[in-house]
Amino acid sequence: MKTPTYAAQYAASLHDPEAFWAGLAGQLHWFQEPPRPVLSQDPDSGLDRWFRGGKLNTSWLCLDFHVQHGRADQVALVYDSPVTGQVRRYTYRELLDLTSRFAGGLRQLGVGPGERVIVYMPNLPEAVVTMLACARLGAVHSVVFGGFAPHELAVRLNDAEPCVLVCASAGLEFDKVIPYKPLVEAALALANHRPDHVVVLQRDFCPAELVPERDVDFRYLLQAAPVDAVPLDATDPLYILYTSGTTGRPKGVVRDNGGHAVALKYSMAAIFGMQPGETFWAASDIGWAVGHSYSVYGPLLHGCTTVLFEGKPVRTPDAGTFWRVIQDHQVRVLFTAPTAIRAIKKEDPTAQLARQYDLSSLRHLFVAGERCDPATYAWAGTTLGVPVVDHWWQTESGWPMLATPVGLADAPAPRAGSAGHPVPGYNVQIVDESGRPVPAGTTGLVAVRLPLPPGCLPTLWRDDARFRSSYLDALPGYYASGDGGYQDAEGYFYIMGRVDDVINVAGHRLSTGEIEELLAAHPAVAECAVLGIACELRGQVPVGLVVLKDGYNLPEEQLQQELVARIRERIGAVACFRQAAVVQRLPKTRSGKILRKTLRQLADGEPFVLPSTIDDPAILDEIRAVLAARGIGQAFAPRVPLG
Ligand code: COA
Ligand code: AMP
């Protein structure tokens, strides 16, 4: 069959979205085909929904379908764990067997359609089995990144109200053992909602004590009789994934079953150019959207082999580990974050280690999670000898919005610094604050004209109002992404960073608003501002500027230690909050709004226009002096070039 062109697919997707997506839905097996129209509005909320009335099961499509269609003995999942020294392979038949048994075990614990199950585990095959088992039963999983502290887990317990929590007894960060069970117990003590059962996967290097009656051994549940997949409505939720918003309350992004399956299957072929049977590796944690979509669901929906990696790009055991995995598992496409490439480049600038492996299986490197700076882009391309594709998406979209869809013919070639072109289904526009498109080359807000295509969040968990106010109200007729950027005259898009209080630290999305709320709760802090300042390795790191309450004159060193410990304890080490400085006052507009953007530009040594609304410009000079004295920020820190 002739490969469709990018231009033709893109035009078709915008001209008649219903026909376009109905055609792609036909590539999946439905227990009941979705009736036309395939796009309609939810009668209660009025929000757009795809494929209402269709019935399917995502776990069935990921497993049973392939077992019944000739892939039973193909490897579905490779678990490669340099931190434990293990490599395990699971065929589609084996993964189905484990999943249907574990689903049977969960059902014995009372888990049924619509119930929530929280998963707090490292990148383990058992975590994937848990996700697929929930999907099989129609239960809604919510995976919480293992690097989050108990407080974050408790917030999610309260919001999702799960009946079961599934965890591992421990994780491994390099060679450091992180016992998870005490973190779970601490979260349960903090939470208002507690699940009836905690299922524990015992890891032999750090087994946990089980609480009688409440706790169940993961392996015990695997002895249950297998159960069949439950037919679900296309609009039933598959999972909730919490992501940072601009406040301390994370947003529960909901993913449905039908739109998600259709969009992900399409993306595997059109965007990543994957054929069923080939190996795809998203080097992400299952706690993030990338892990959900491209370590678990996308590759399995498409009949690929997925690699689940428990390790880091460096020091597990060295900066050649990614290249070894590509060689050992014949990876066709690697998907990672630019920060991982920067970490490798820092340790092996001349890419000596890459030369020790056979990388000939690799066709493309895809990067996302933050803007890929041109130097990293160039280094990766030269090292790997394959095209590097920067592509843009968010937890909310669940799949790429901008990319170079390498599976479509004649897609414009990728370019350093650009996230490419709109993916079919996404009418991406750069607009001003009143929603008017801006001319090429002008920076504005990155927005997507409604309706969003299948796969994107239909709403936030139990909060349609927050969904509307967060994404739809600011720019009527559009989904507001929260990112800023521009489009050049040739149509390439450039995403330049968030326009709200969200920052990206080593590809992890964090809320400066949440960090501010936690710092402000320290008894000595009168007010504060948290900035995401540029970091050569992690992209951005948070830094706090605090004003002390009158009468508090804590030594600055001690205060910083207390504030750093507070963020580590409440959000987790992953926030990388390591610096706080005391300032006399913060720059504000005359109406009292802290000028965070100006502060960030000041710290990063970027030129900025003095805001006309600033109440006292002299404050900026005071803060510049404090930052310089403390060596905080690009403008002041001694520069150690990477690579
Ligand atoms: N469980 C417990 N702790 C975790 C954790 C987890 N799953 N993940 C990270 N942490 C801890 C780390 O141990 C570290 O703790 P420390 O301050 O006590 O040393 C802290 O959080 C910061 O972690 P990280 O930012 O990962 O730093 P690092 O030095 O361990 O590794 C990189 C740096 C760049 C190698 C790493 O951040 C990385 O691989 N980034 C890529 C991320 C990515 O792929 N993002 C996905 C989206 S596509
Ligand atoms: P997350 O929801 O964690 O996937 O983070 C989404 C955010 O990461 C986006 O809103 C962007 O700010 C940023 N991001 C993701 N991919 C890219 C990219 N290719 N270029 C620039 N920023 C990106």
TrEMBL record:
InterPro entries: ACAS_N (IPR032387), AMP-bd_C (IPR025110), AMP-bd_C_sf (IPR045851), AMP-binding_CS (IPR020845), AMP-dep_synth/lig_dom (IPR000873), ANL_N_sf (IPR042099). Pfam families: ACAS_N (PF16177), AMP-binding (PF00501), AMP-binding_C (PF13193). Residues 70-449 form the AMP-dependent synthetase/ligase domain. It comes from the Bacteria. The keyword Ligase applies. Gene3D superfamilies: 3.30.300.30, N-terminal domain of ligase-like (3.40.50.12780). Keywords: Ligase. GO terms for molecular function: propionate-CoA ligase activity. The keyword Ligase applies. Its EC number is 6.2.1.17. Residues 514-593 form the AMP-binding enzyme C-terminal domain. Residues 6-62 form the Acetyl-coenzyme A synthetase N-terminal domain. Belongs to the ATP-dependent AMP-binding enzyme family. This is Propionyl-CoA synthetase.
